[in-house]
Structure formats: structure tokens, C-alpha cells
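Handout, page 2. Input:
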Amino acid sequence: MSYCLGITHVEPVTHNLFFERFLNEGRSDPPDIDVDFPWDERDNVLDYVFQKYGLDRAAMISNHVGFRARAAVREIAKVYGLPEAEIKAVTQRMGYYWSIRNLPDFVQHDPVYKDMEFKDPWPEILRLAVRLEGYPRNMSVHCGGVVIVPAGSTITSRWSPPPRGCGSSSGRKIRRRMRVW
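Output:
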């Protein structure tokens, strides 16, 4: 990508460089470009970027975390007022990578639940948890993701201030104001 965009003059095919990881038929998302910095230098790099480009041209990016099976069941069960011990007895048996779409089927047929009986309101909780798929659970500031736009660009993206007390990787508070895209 860097060669195609004119960022570098190193042509990957001529130099037999490995790039199949980024451009292959099995990849569902488009390739991206990033630069990795050591964790203990990240704050200095971010300070430099915001000082050089300013808040009108640079912003931190956000992470959007969606509901997975455990969290969806836990949140719906809390709405029903079920005790934490009962909720935990169900959710701790769920596999981390369980598909939320198949949640009722997993719970009904998985051997880890063979000794459990799901009385009301559990069938409804499981049914409602499936409906949370695709909904955001929380948003946070990416630890180092930054977007820099050209001067005079019109920003058409939503932005919001970072959460209060947003800490940096070194543990000190981020002193600079920043926008989150």
C-alpha cells in the first residue's frame, strides 16, 4: 500500500517482500497502514503529533466494543433483577467465542449445562440477549490510534471528548485536549 500511495519507493514485488498478509482473497477488510512505537515512547509521539498538527487536524480514534454472548446475557439478567450468583452460574460456563446468534441452542445442548434447568425468565433472557448482537457495549480511546488530516479538510466524522480521567499508557493523565473520532 505504501508503494502504491507513493509513500515509499521500495517496490515489493521486485524485492520479493512479503505482503500476502495484507492483500489476499481471504481477508474481508481493506488493508491499512500503521506505524508501531514502543509502549514507553507512545506518549511522547502523541504529544509531538498534537503539538505539530493541532486539534483541527489530529484526533485520537476510538474503539467500539460490541456485545458478545456473556455480556449480553449478564446485562439482560441484571435488568430482570436476578442475583449475581445465579447470573454467574450461567455466564461462567459460556465459551468466550460462543456466537451470540446460536446462544439459545448452545445453552440447550452444550454438555456444560446438562445439570442446569432454565426456568422463567431464563428462556426470555437468552432470546433477548441474541437481539443485542451488533449493538455497542462501550466506547473507549484507542491507546495509540491517531488520524491526521490535511490542512483545510472538512471533517465529516462524529467526535467526542475523551472520557474524564482518561489515562495514558504510562499511567499519567493525558494533559492535552484531544478529540476522539
